[in-house]
Specification:
The structure is a single chain. The chain folds into three domains: about 210 residues, Sandwich (Immunoglobulin-like), CATH 2.60.40; about 250 residues, Alpha-Beta Barrel (TIM Barrel); about 130 residues, Immunoglobulin-like. Helices cover about 20% and strands about 30% of the residues. The strands form nine sheets. The chain has a nine-stranded antiparallel β-sheet, covered by helices on one side. A hairpin with a 4-residue loop joins β45 and β46. α11 runs parallel beside α12. The radius of gyration is 28 Å and the shape is globular.
Length: about 800
């Protein structure tokens, strides 16, 4: 095709834009139990409520090629819908979410219980002026398509996936094309994992279910217009709403899928770097963690496991036996110590690799337009790309994983899955490169997850991947924020990145602790601050280029001493953190939560990213600048306690928190229950039969609840199968009178304790002598810490810490503990 002069192309696009508005008007409709289909002069439009608070809208213009939905997890719920027709409109939906369809010109507005949420400026727009080429790409009827919506003047918008732009992304134009952002710091508008969705301060989510290369313009080009356009894909979107942000997220994952519980070991400490060159080096590293008394749960091997050099070997998918002569024995030895082995894989098969011909013979590679395996060059060599959309190719790729799993490999790190390089016109089973680029990592995760379900149905997969799409969480994907700069500038945006991803389902988004790229000299303080923050992010994984060791065990004594206590704290918090994982798997609630969840009436809080909530109990403010003696932290309403010192702060204000190299601001909410366990060396040794339960008392909190989830830590969907238990804690306080109630909901699972020994710490307790009874039986208060240490049942008041300590056994029958009744 010859290129049209720019002004003719612009004129043709503008005419197409106008014709859409004039011609796309209502003709007729068909109402069935699950959807409403409307015939228009431009094609059909189908509205389908998936839940009472979520609706898909699928425009199907004649002659436009459509791709399948990748965002939606399953079939619609059985919902009783409402319908009404007037002379000028159709009204369709549920009591929670109603679409009002204007017949001519055709456009749809959305209401939550009578309140306007969102409105199309017009319906589907084909070949509009977007700043992207409108030429075809060799696929017939492959044209640019998109939507336009009006925005309220004061509306704030979050979303778009991984970007470093601030929390409110109104006024930004977001490219939708997953790509590497090597060495990024405090600004990045295009990164590894885009999500074509926004969350509004009006409490709706708008998700464009389109996998193709495109963009979202959030009021940048036109101030109060949200535009979406893509070079192909599916012409559909979903609208979801809720009465609160947590409810909105739950409604979103009810449609796009909930994250299954990861294996408990995913919450442990990882040894990782780019990279371990040999079996000897890998063994020595694992030994070093033990020698330095650092807990460890996994070692991750980067690309040297299959080749001695960075280039020329990718796609081998076999051990380099010169460097790793006995990998099976190494893996087994690590497993006996409670340390899992995780391997990196990439979807690129180099033509110089040992698997090239096998991949070609098995039709495993994406093709060029001549029907031959597509070959192209990138940093690692001349390569092909596995067609994860093709079942035959997927079977071949899975066989490589299965063979390594039979050797004992416990988890997978999927790298370069944007894909990092992908020709626009490469042909996959599902479409061209540009059409399916943004769902390549999503489909890769789906392939592995479904194969796990087929061959290892009881095993929870560990799938750490760099790129995906809306809904990737349902395949157990654990994303990270890519090759961040090893600098203070790299540390600064990490909270924003994780919070934004968590709002749209990807709750395990985490960073390479300490930073990955660059950093020719060791910045000790920056490194310590990043690893301190990491205790309160979803995955604890220091990782970097090897010129400076990312593992804390290879640094100076002071660094090791500080960080050893943080890593051990991470393990002590396993009951609490695992409960956060449980809540995420059932409701979509992220582990890291923005402060605007606490006060939805204050839209200014949306932009606050200096601190966040780790679950419901903790507020964390990472230290992201050097040489600070204090950090200003905005506290939500209520009472908050300094986790380290016990200092009490009144909420609903900004306070100045003192810090040292040993501490970052970590506060605990008054009324919080925090379950912990004793020190362990690996999650294999996890045992909640001896439970340390902390309650942060305050007379202003008259009633509080908490819970703890537990299961065997490994069975897939144990909570869905009923193989779990929930420990429930309740507190009622009036001045120095405190009543605590314990109960349990439980069914059988491997390792379930029939009785627990509890050590209860009641913090901020100001009464030295106390009358205490458990189920009416007195609990004697010891006179000294020494006497208390000798007993298995009793109490002690620590005056210096203002902490009441109690020991008792709980056989899991309902238990009432009364202090000064």
């Amino acid at each position: 095709m010859k290129t049209l002069p720019a002004f003719i192309l612009a004129l043709s696009c503008l005419l197409s834009f106008c014709l859409n508005a004039e011609q796309n008007s209502y003709i007729s409709h068909n109402l069935n139990p699950q959807s409403l289909t409307i015939s228009t002069h431009g094609g059909t439009v189908t509205l389908t409520p998936y839940t009472p608070s979520a609706m898909e809208v699928f425009y199907q213009p004649e002659g436009i090629r459509q791709l399948p939905s990748y965002a939606i997890a399953g079939a619609p719920e059985n919902i009783e819908s409402r319908f009404k027709e007037t002379a000028t409109t159709l009204q369709y939906g549920t009591p929670q979410l109603t679409a009002v369809i204007q017949k001519a010109p055709f456009a749809i507005s959305y209401y939550r219980q009578g309140t306007l949420l969102l409105a199309e400026e017009q319906g589907l727009v084909i070949d509009q002026i977007t700043g992207m080429s409108s030429q075809t790409t060799g696929i017939s009827n492959h044209r640019e398509r998109g939507f336009r919506f009006t925005l309220d003047k004061h509306e704030k918008l979050m979303g778009g996936g991984e970007r470093v732009l601030g929390m409110d992304r109104r006024g930004q134009r977001l490219p939708l094309y997953n790509r590497a952002a090597y060495g990024y710091t405090t600004h990045a508008d295009q990164m590894y994992f885009g999500i074509p969705a926004v969350m509004s301060s009006k409490k709706y989510i708008l998700l464009f279910d389109n996998s193709a290369k495109g963009f979202m313009d959030l009021g940048k080009t036109e101030k109060n217009i949200l535009q979406f356009a893509a070079n192909g894909g599916r012409t559909s979107y979903l609208v979801m709403t809720g009465t609160s942000y947590p409810e909105l997220i739950e409604n979103y994952v009810s449609v796009t899928g909930k994250q299954p519980l990861p294996p408990r070991w995913a919450l442990g400490n990882f040894a990782s770097r780019f990279g371990y060159h040999s079996e000897a080096e890998t063994r020595a590293t694992v030994d070093r963690f033990a020698e330095e008394d650092f807990p460890l749960d996994a070692v991750i091997l980067d690309l040297y496991w299959f080749g001695a050099d960075v280039t020329g070997h990718m796609g081998n998918l076999e051990w380099d036996r010169k460097a790793f002569p006995q990998p099976e024995k190494m893996i087994a030895d690590f497993q006996r110590r409670g340390v899992k082995t995780v391997l990196i894989t990439e979807p690129f098969i180099l033509s110089t690799s040992g698997k090239w011909q096998e991949a070609v013979d098995n039709n495993a590679l994406a093709l060029n337009h001549n029907g031959e395996p597509a070959r192209f060059d990138f940093f690692f060599g001349n390569t092909g790309l596995v067609d994860v959309f093709d079942p035959q190719a997927g079977d071949w790729f899975w066989r490589q994983y299965q063979r390594l799993m039979q050797q004992g490999v416990a988890g997978w790190w999927g790298d370069l899955g944007e894909p990092e390089v992908q020709p626009a016109d490469i042909v996959h089973a599902a479409g061209t490169g540009d059409e399916i680029h943004n769902v390549y990592g999503h489909q890769w995760a789906k392939l592995l997850y479904n194969k796990y379900r087929e061959f290892y149905p009881e095993t929870r997969p560990f799938l750490m991947m760099r790129s995906g799409f809306a809904g990737s969480q349902r395949y157990g994907m654990i994303p990270w924020t890519g090759d961040v700069s090893r600098s203070w500038g790299g540390l600064k945006p990490q909270v924003e990145l994780s919070l934004q991803m968590g709002l749209l389902g990807m709750a395990y988004t985490h960073s390479d602790l300490g930073g990955f790229a660059g950093g020719e000299t060791f910045d000790k303080e920056m490194y310590i601050r990043w690893l301190q923050y990491g205790v309160f992010q979803p995955v604890y994984r220091p990782h970097a280029q090897e010129d400076i060791a990312p593992e804390p065990v290879f640094h100076d004594t002071e660094t090791k001493n500080i960080l050893r206590e943080y890593v051990k704290l991470r393990y002590r918090m396993l009951p609490y953190n695992y409960t956060l994982a449980y809540h995420n798997s059932t409701t979509g609630m992220p582990l890291m939560r923005p402060l605007f969840f606490e006060d939805e009436s204050d839209p200014a809080l949306i932009e606050y990213k200096d601190a966040y909530l780790w679950g419901d109990a903790f507020l964390v403010a990472p230290v992201v600048d050097a040489d600070l003696k204090t950090v200003d932290v905005r506290l939500p309403k209520g009472v908050w306690f300094d986790f380290w010192s016990g200092q009490k702060y009144q909420g609903d204000q900004t306070v100045e928190i003192p810090v040292s190299l040993e501490t970052i601001p970590v506060l605990v909410r008054g009324g919080a229950f925090v379950p912990m366990v004793n020190d362990i060396r690996t999650t294999r040794d996890y045992d909640s039969t001896r439970l340390n339960l902390h309650y942060f008392a305050d007379s202003s909190v008259t009633h509080a609840r908490g819970e703890m989830y537990d299961d065997d830590g490994k069975t897939h969907r144990a909570n869905d199968k009923g193989h779990f238990e929930l420990l429930n804690f309740e507190a009622q306080q009036q001045n120095n009178s405190l009543a605590l109630h314990f109960s349990r909901t439980s069914s059988a699972y491997e390792g379930r304790p029939e009785q627990r020994s509890l050590r209860l710490s009641v913090h901020n307790w100001n009464k030295a002598r106390n009358r205490i009874a458990i189920n009416g039986k007195p609990l004697v208060q010891a006179e000294s810490a020494e006497d208390f240490a000798k007993t298995t049942r009793g109490a002690y008041y620590d005056k210096a810490k203002r902490e009441l300590l109690l020991k008792f056994s709980w056989n899991h029958q309902p238990l009432a503990l009364n202090i000064n009744p």
